[in-house]
Write a structure and sequence with these properties.
Layout: H1 3-16, E1 19-24, E2 32-36, E3 39-45, H2 50-62, H3 75-81
Parallel strand pairs: 1-3
Antiparallel strand pairs: 2-3
Helix pairs in contact: 1-2
Length: about 80
Amino acid sequence: MFSVDLLEEAIQVAKDSGFEVRHEWLSESVGGACRIGQRRVLYVDLSLTAEEQLEQVVTALRNERQMAVESITSSALRDLLLP
């Protein structure tokens, strides 16, 4: 499966897990998950390649205790996210 397809699926899993996903041109800042008040926000850095963006999302989801596992449809993403 291509990185872009996996990225789109991973972003949907993040949304289903309760993240507000923001696509921002961060260039010199670091993307990833953070909490703003009661909201969980995942910043995806548009200055990165699709593969690097996928790694940002996967890293955030691996650290998420309430990941929407039922939203994972591809075995490739399941292999990236689950031990």
